[in-house]
Specification:
mainly beta, homodimer, 5-stranded antiparallel sheet, 26 strands, globular, about 375 residues
Amino acid sequence: MSTQAVLSKSSRPIATSLKGKDSRLEVMSAVPLVLSTPVGLLAEQTITDKKYLFVRNIQDLAEGMTLEPLPLEGWETELVGLIKPFRVVIRGEELLEMDQAEYEMILQCSGNGRSQYRGIPGTPWDQGGVGNVRFAGVPLKAILDKYNVTVDPQVKYVTAEGHDLPMGLEKPDFEHSLPVAPVLERSILALKLNGEPLPGIHGGPVRLVTPGLFGTMQVKWLRRLRFETAESPNFYHATEYRVPLSLLKAGEKFRFTMENSRPTWDIRLMSYILEPESGAKLKAGVVTVSGVAYNDGSVRLESVLVSFDRGQNWQPAKFEIPDSPYAWYRWTTQANLKPGVHEIWSRAIDALGRTQPLEGSIFWNPNGYEWTGVFKVEVTVN
Amino acid sequence: MSTQAVLSKSSRPIATSLKGKDSRLEVMSAVPLVLSTPVGLLAEQTITDKKYLFVRNIQDLAEGMTLEPLPLEGWETELVGLIKPFRVVIRGEELLEMDQAEYEMILQCSGNGRSQYRGIPGTPWDQGGVGNVRFAGVPLKAILDKYNVTVDPQVKYVTAEGHDLPMGLEKPDFEHSLPVAPVLERSILALKLNGEPLPGIHGGPVRLVTPGLFGTMQVKWLRRLRFETAESPNFYHATEYRVPLSLLKAGEKFRFTMENSRPTWDIRLMSYILEPESGAKLKAGVVTVSGVAYNDGSVRLESVLVSFDRGQNWQPAKFEIPDSPYAWYRWTTQANLKPGVHEIWSRAIDALGRTQPLEGSIFWNPNGYEWTGVFKVEVTVN
């Protein structure tokens, strides 16, 4: 792929360039490609269909703008850095022959919910930047075993690069560093999404997938993993996709450094009301409220509480614990609503005692990442 | 003070050695001195009286075993380490002449609530290791200004030593390192407790007090502050008074290192039901439930929820926001209870969305620090 192709890409009309695009996907902006999943679809599907799964690419792979798979033949992923041997190249065909592991898991943009913060530029995500999918592929651990790779004990991070290129010569390339522990414990080189070969638009043929981390850390079109002692100073890792370690006031200026901020690694605990949608008009009587909730998968959710009186009382929703700790919990509850305008609030609590603050803006940050506030919808009952 | 005096101290009868001791204090063990505050007294007093305030000393100052103040005259505290000038000695009399700052604040042993964990040796604290007091003294910041002390930007920790000595020649001395930021921001050299000269037993005449931190970090009988780039490798700082960074199973063996654990610095969010006490017998009808709640003071408490049906429903308690962010919130609520055995649970939530897990044992650690579980009492209603 030439740089020319990348440069020209930014001016193409997106609607025609994404083969197999479904008209129900909401195109949120033209460059770079962003597709949002409508709430109604999230509510319908326990496993989010690849056709409706959100897309958020910082940069694209020109031939990857498709819901079809890309060929695995000839695709190479290399391991380099503080490892022995110093370089290992894994061919796509070899991956196919190895045992596969599958995770049902949240895929979520760290900017999901950004529209709840005030005055922040960027993709105006509400809750369309999340899905619950199944990724399958080869555990990195198994690859290290097969190729007799030893990782130096000094390695603290694994930096992942994709085959995608910047959207212009003046732009920095995109990559992310992940803490080595979860990578060695559970990362896979994913080849499948929901049981089918991974579509190009979702990072196929090979994507680094580590359940429990935000989508930006699930690096697409995987080309190289670097085993290193420090985090990458790359623009998108050292400046973007970070949140301050201290609390800011809304609108406050902040100059990100590695020391005063951290990457958007672990998914924040969250719950959403998917039915009824905000603005819905309902009939008086028993109303069913349902939604999803999840955290980073490190511990189970303890409860989902729902309030029909702006936090005066909270009743527990019913939910089943999913088989995968990284998947979302679907929850439901009922209440008898009288005519009038009602707010319905949801709040998950996990076994570590982490919950959603009433005012999620307390975590205001210049890029609007990691929204985790109590979820609120307003409905009219007649 | 000679080492001999310290060695002999551990065999003295505590009840007679603590002058001014009130019979309502509960002596929990003889050596070292531990005094617990009865629940009834916590419930009665917004500001915990010095006579009833818990005492937990790793080691004692022989002449300090008194509720009376010790003389400030001749008491010297020195500042050393990466500062200019390299050593500053502050005499007690000079502190008296400077402007004083006062904090209403939680004083809490990091082992408070230890009895809720199972099978952990140590002081069997229930909720008697906490109080709400007023400490007043001279801000360290003002002392640095007055003596033209500049702190090297490389300083990351301030290590505090007291004049107390180990309870035996073979034992390590006691000291703690605190992060430099809160120390420079709000630490005081405390001279007063609840408006009166600081009693010897509570660390007088000079104690390092940093609101928001656990009691063990409020170093008594302050002798020296060391401004350093690293945490102290001292036994009580590097091995004791730490919690693992990962979750352990109850009873799991753990070898503490600086890398796999952190000090018990910031007070954990907590709520207590003080009335009725567990085991109380009540009359059927409207029952008033009241207690206290607090966190590390970094953000305000958002709500205190109380459940009378083992977590099925949660109602908000009423509380007033105290003037000091470091003080406890007193809360109260009511419910109509029918005859039978009832559990009453309380749970605080703060503005960061931190709350108490239903099962506090998820944070099980070998020394039983930082209990933060949902608080539960059982009462019988007739």
